[in-house]
TrEMBL record, chains A, B:
<keyword id="KW-0460">Magnesium</keyword>
<dbReference type="InterPro" id="IPR029017">
    <property type="entry name" value="Enolase-like_N"/>
</dbReference>
<dbReference type="InterPro" id="IPR034610">
    <property type="entry name" value="L-fuconate_dehydratase"/>
</dbReference>
<dbReference type="InterPro" id="IPR029065">
    <property type="entry name" value="Enolase_C-like"/>
</dbReference>
<dbReference type="InterPro" id="IPR013342">
    <property type="entry name" value="Mandelate_racemase_C"/>
</dbReference>
<dbReference type="InterPro" id="IPR018110">
    <property type="entry name" value="Mandel_Rmase/mucon_lact_enz_CS"/>
</dbReference>
<keyword id="KW-0456">Lyase</keyword>
<dbReference type="Pfam" id="PF13378">
    <property type="entry name" value="MR_MLE_C"/>
</dbReference>
<dbReference type="InterPro" id="IPR036849">
    <property type="entry name" value="Enolase-like_C_sf"/>
</dbReference>
<protein>
    <submittedName>
        <fullName>Enolase C-terminal domain-like protein</fullName>
    </submittedName>
</protein>
<dbReference type="InterPro" id="IPR046945">
    <property type="entry name" value="RHMD-like"/>
</dbReference>
<feature type="domain" description="Mandelate racemase/muconate lactonizing enzyme C-terminal">
    <location>
        <begin position="193"/>
        <end position="289"/>
    </location>
</feature>
<keyword id="KW-0479">Metal-binding</keyword>
């Protein structure tokens, strides 16, 4: 099956106008996608890099840099691990990472588009497409380079085989109840107290058992907002806090001591996502508050160390910063170390694509939803052909074939940057 | 002083034809530069990202993404730390890293161009421009975010103050003798045995006391080549080996056991540059062979951990993967932990720019050349207006103002990709 063309679109949403998505490090994001359409003889696959505005064109350039490796070549849907390695091991493009930054994100978008296509060809939503593979097939998707000191392919096969009993029951339960979610909608830093209180109250009424607040810009403000949120939701609802990498190690520890009276459930991104040892030090100091990170963790090697060092309680993979094949490796590592995966989502389209990974994890890898929640943000879902559905605080399991990554043609056209109507009409 | 324009050039050299630069991970590099010219009212500054071919255009796109933050703004040559932070803290562009990959390399190229200009305006080579700053001024260049658990700005000032005695003598010695170099010229993987033996013999005759061999593709071959090299140079010359990230942790340990009889001095890039804990495990296992890495280490946070974890004996910063301000922080961290810095060089222009950092380190930071050597590769120097000069195995201290980053206009024109004459005329 031949790849006919690789299209890349620069698509941006002017979200900074409403301070949706504002946090201590990212005051004015314009949620954006470097959007891929992989045209093949068997149909189209869709994927994207998620960015927050400026620089989206760099991801578009990076996607185009892979074109000579993709267009015109045979795509074997039974060897998507090999396809991904062909992109990720290209020595010249790898030099720009290695395995991080714009080229790694671009490769992930293309790999995800190939999985979207493969699931569509199989007539299954991606979560079921992955869960239906044999353990050996799942293990073959991953790139095991740099991982074998923590987990070997043979051990991973064993781990997946151990998870097979109960699969049918879990799948039925997932289809019936969905996958547990938490919501970040109330907690953006730019929101007023009234808006925070109203959205927090609504979240509880809608069935969510966890919300998340952005923190890290001003300690007194954070203490006040956290107190307000705790008062509104009561003691039975988990409140996670998220500093978006704002602090040094010592600062993180001090700040969390001040927030401790309000019983934060986890502190997310307390410091640089590169700082494995820093997260380990913070975790030791702020327990029983949990430490979470992952949305900016560059690759499986970094996650391996976060797990080896005992640096995190919660692993927050992102469905677009690395592709499906690498996320399969990350899910296997998390299972090996017994750390729950609570993925990052939000932005544009991240909820749509990442739900498939959590559901695959539940059915075929960890086999559990214990202490696992999937982030939900109520933004921009209307631009997708198969948007997420939240029912009583749970993600409903998608039934349509594919990875739910496809944007509506009119959304692509209107939000094309800089020529689309939305950008031309901005005041 | 206003920035008038930010130019970005895609410049490539067809080095893959001769297998110059071939190693176990990079079989066919075409050394390339995403080259920056910073035009200001006070003159021009030059800098570049180094890449190995495909993807150079992604760095060009990333440089252009910074244009709105640079062109038309005032550049205060007395606050280059602030200028660098203005680029590196841009939240939207930072999202593509953070602080890694194409955008981080692009910011580094622009920051380096600003330092090239500042040194030219001061009428000094960069090494002397930096060494003549007061300790507080040097410390103000660095971005201390994420570093304070290992080194505070106040401690860094103290460290620099402690290094002040003997400066004049060191500077005089440097100008007289130069800075010790080692050569990678003999060791590329694609070279024949005859070429390896001839170049190794020549290196010793020219006064080098250390050479480096690429390894990692085939163990039997490596044992044979290492034996040949040791036979040619004798026991008194250090032979470093470089695996260019080819191995997993266990593999690295086994491979180095097989090479141990030939007394390798250091093993460079045994595994992923992201694997701090992996390097620490390898170091424990292969001692007394030293462990070195750095050319692909993304930023100061990763170096901080390599030092905190006792993972490296030799720190190999690269002058282009991060900019001068970040390399100042890295030199300070290395001094704090007592680890010698032996920078990565080679490629195109890396020798020219990095020599300034080693010489600054010697005069003003570590104050020592003990166990410090600067990589030298005899490639492509003829394209620079102020090329490095090697005298009896030492880099001669540059005397011309600036960072030695400027390419000749005819080299830029001939190697412009894809339109330059060198590329048009390729068979």
């Amino acid at each position: 099956m031949k790849v006919i063309a690789l299209e890349a679109h620069d698509v941006r949403f002017p979200t900074s106008a409403a301070l949706d998505g504002s946090d201590a490090m990212n005051p004015d994001p314009d949620y954006s996608a470097a959007y891929v359409v992989l045209h093949t003889e068997a149909g189209d696959g869709h994927g994207f890099c998620f960015t927050i505005g400026r620089g989206n064109e760099v991801c578009v350039a990076a996607i185009r840099a892979y074109e000579p490796l993709v267009t015109g070549r045979d795509l074997d849907l039974d060897d998507l691990g090999g396809f991904a390695k062909g992109l990720l091991h290209d020595s010249q493009l790898r030099w720009l990472g290695p395995e991080k930054g714009a080229v790694h994100m671009a490769a992930a978008a293309i790999v995800n588009a190939a999985f979207d296509l493969a699931a569509k060809v199989a007539g299954k939503p991606l979560w079921r497409f992955l869960a239906d593979l044999a353990p050996e097939q799942i293990v073959d998707l991953a790139d095991w380079r740099y991982l074998t000191d923590a987990l070997t392919p043979a051990d991973a096969v064993g781990l997946l085989a151990d998870a097979r009993p109960g699969r049918a029951e879990r799948e039925a339960r997932l289809v019936e109840r969905g996958y547990p979610a938490y919501t970040t909608t109330p907690g953006w830093l730019g929101y007023t107290d009234d808006k925070l209180a109203r959205l927090a109250r609504e979240a509880v009424a809608e069935g969510f058992t966890q919300i998340k607040l952005k923190v890290g810009a001003d300690l007194d403000e954070d203490v006040r907002r956290m107190g307000l949120a705790r008062e509104v939701v009561g003691p039975g609802i988990r409140i996670a806090v998220d500093a978006n990498q704002r602090w040094d190690v010592g600062q993180a520890i001090e700040w969390m001591r001040a927030l401790a009276p309000f019983d934060p459930y986890w502190i997310e991104e307390p410091t640089s996502p590169d700082d494995v040892l820093g997260h380990a030090a913070i975790r030791r100091a702020v327990a029983p508050v949990k430490v979470a990170t992952g949305e900016h963790v560059a690759n499986r090697v970094m996650f391996k160390q976060l797990l080896q060092a005992g640096a995190i309680d919660v692993l927050q993979l992102d469905a677009c910063r690395v592709g499906v094949t690498e996320n399969v490796a990350i899910l296997l590592l998390a299972a090996r170390f017994g750390v729950p995966v609570c993925p990052h989502a939000g932005g544009v389209g991240l909820c749509e694509v990442v739900q498939h990974l959590s559901m695959f994890d539940y059915v075929a890898v960890s086999g559990s939803t214990q202490d696992r929640v999937l982030e939900y943000v109520d933004h921009l879902h209307e631009h997708f052909t198969d948007p997420v559905r939240i029912v009583r605080g749970h993600y409903a399991a998608p039934a349509e074939p594919g990875m739910s990554a496809e944007m509506k043609p009119e959304s692509l056209a209107d939000h094309a940057y800089p020529g689309g109507s939305v950008w031309r009409d901005l005041p």
